[in-house]
Design a protein that fits this description.
The mean pLDDT is about 95. The chain has 7 helices and 15 strands. The chain is of the alpha+beta class. The protein is globular and about 80 Å long. It has one domain (about 5-285): Jelly Rolls (Sandwich), CATH 2.60.120. About 30% of the residues lie in helices and about 20% in strands.
Length: about 325
């Protein structure tokens, strides 16, 4: 079935066939049930302290030139300037755990480093990062200092990964394109869903070095920072998995199935460029304009025929002009 085995309806049957340790079985079972697992004290203190130093000396230092997005709270893709940030993203324990949970090679592709709590509203990562086959994406949140109610803990709704992957096709009443100007509508919708759901809202009061691995579709966000100005140093790495088609629903037209594809992004661990495919099978996207594409190899053949017809008509017109 084209789903990660830990999210498959056949999970219990598949689990019986796996050659896993008792600890791995427990992790997989928790992930299947709750949509997340916690790994305690994963990262050495010296690496964590170096990440924080790089955040202050490079990421949040306005005099240090970067070409990536940053504001006072976060910097995206600090790994491009920080070896310690790359180390966190490519940590052996994390990579081996992800490969066990997904049965595919994990591909770290984006980092977000936070100096303060994000205070983000409830959302699913699938609005930003999705894949075909579905759900081959996850996030790993790492505490670079202790987290308390004062500095804005991550919150998540246990079990919410089982919900549909909501996008603007569920919200908009017209087949229009969307941009990040529309994002607040998605946030309002997700909050209304959570208000009527029975999922338990939990808070991750982590210790320095702890990691929270969450499924792509679990609903999560950032709590209010109670003590103004208090830091909450942390790093999120987003991972895709090998042999998928990668796209961004937020910038796609999910009504007309015109996808904003993510091609050629870098594997943080290897530095190699990643190209989309479907379980090892190449699919040629056909551009529909506005950075969007459809996936249909047969239409590619139709396009070639139509181009030949147009060329023939041009030749005929010239001959008889």
């Amino acid at each position: 079935m084209n789903l990660p085995w830990v999210e498959s309806p056949f999970f219990n049957e598949i689990l019986k066939t796996k050659n896993l340790t008792e600890e791995e079985k427990q992790l997989a079972t928790e992930y299947n049930k709750n949509g997340f697992v916690v790994l305690r004290n994963v990262f050495p203190e010296d690496v964590i302290d170096q990440v924080k130093a790089d955040m202050n000396q490079k990421g949040f230092n306005e005099d240090f030139p970067v070409t990536v997005y940053r504001d006072k709270t976060r910097i995206q893709d600090l790994w491009q300037y920080s070896d310690s940030t790359k180390q966190i993203s490519s940590n052996d324990t994390i990579m081996k755990t992800l490969e066990m949970l997904y049965d595919r090679e994990p591909i770290p592709f984006q980092t977000l480093n936070f100096k303060f709590g994000s205070q983000q509203r409830a959302h699913s990562d699938t609005i930003h990062f999705s894949s075909i086959p579905a759900r081959y994406m996850c996030g790993v949140w790492v505490a670079l200092e202790d987290v308390t109610p004062e500095n804005g803990a991550v919150f998540y709704y246990s079990g919410s990964h089982r919900m549909p992957e909501y996008n603007f096709a569920h919200i908009k009443d017209a087949p229009e394109d969307t941009t990040y100007n529309d994002y607040v509508q998605y946030e309002d919708f997700m909050q209304s869903i959570m208000n009527v759901s029975e999922f338990d809202k939990k808070f991750f009061y982590a210790k320095k070095g702890d990691a929270l691995i969450w499924s792509s579709n679990i609903i999560h966000g950032g709590s209010k920072v109670e003590a103004e100005g208090s830091t909450r140093y942390s790093q999120v790495t987003h991972y895709y998995f090998k042999d998928c088609i990668y796209y961004t629903p937020m910038l796609s037209n999910m009504v007309t199935n015109e996808l904003y594809l993510r091609n050629g992004f870098k594997n943080i661990k290897t530095g190699e460029s990643v190209q989309s495919n479907f379980n090892g099978h190449n699919i040629t996207p056909i551009s529909t304009g506005k950075d969007k594409s459809i996936l249909n190899n047969r239409l590619d053949e139709v396009k070639k025929i139509m181009d030949l017809v147009k060329l023939k008509n041009k030749i005929v017109n010239k001959l008889f002009k």
